[in-house]
Specification:
CATH architecture: Roll
Shape: globular
Helix content: 25-40%
Number of domains: 1
Number of helices: 7
Structural class: alpha+beta
Number of strands: 8
Radius of gyration: 18 Å
Distance between the termini: 71 Å
Strand content: 25-35%
Length: about 180
């Protein structure tokens, strides 16, 4: 039987406290609860077996206008649930948003993680990489520590060609012509 990845006990205890604070409306940031570069959210995803909502605190990586979430503790239950559901709810303070989650291909995930680690991601050691690791080492890391891009359904549903066409039209006709 395959072993299941699991966060260490101290992380599960800290997650319970963090979840309580986030539900109370505190806007926390990681990695050190009150200061850091990673805003913390409650990620709620439907359980793949039970169908019940499952909630876990996560630190969001913001890069190039996109939001990413990664699993420093491997393929844990919330990762399995997110893979199955492909959507989740992100809550911060009183604001909640439904997002579509797409697991990044290994090559793309490795590039995102490498850039984030080079910029000082304090969770790098959990992924088993350093800022000096090779691209191949980052690819190995994301194979067992998945990275997801989170997008609003409205943004994700709009075809890229349609977005480019609208941008092109705006550039050609910068003024609206009202008659």
């Amino acid at each position: 039987m395959a072993t299941k990845d699991k966060a260490p006990r101290y992380v599960r205890i800290a997650n319970a406290m963090t979840t309580t604070l986030l539900r109370a409306g505190f806007k926390l940031v990681g990695p050190w609860i009150v200061f850091g570069n990673y805003p913390m959210y409650l990620l709620t995803v439907r359980g793949r077996k039970s169908g019940l909502p499952r909630t876990v605190p996560v630190a969001i990586i913001r890069r190039n206008g996109k939001c990413y979430v990664g699993s420093p503790y491997g393929i844990v239950d919330w990762v399995r649930n997110l893979r199955a559901a492909k959507e989740a709810s992100l809550t911060r303070g009183r604001r909640s948003e439904t997002v579509n989650a797409t697991e990044l291909p290994i090559e793309e995930a490795a590039l995102v993680l490498r850039k984030d680690v080079k910029d000082g991601n304090p969770f790098a050691s959990y992924f088993g990489v350093t800022k000096d690791s090779s691209l191949e080492e980052f690819e190995q890391a994301v194979a067992s520590h998945p990275l997801f891009v989170l997008q609003s359904p409205l943004v994700q549903g709009r075809p890229q060609a349609e977005q480019e066409e609208r941008q092109s039209a705006k550039e050609e006709h910068p003024q609206s012509q009202a008659h």
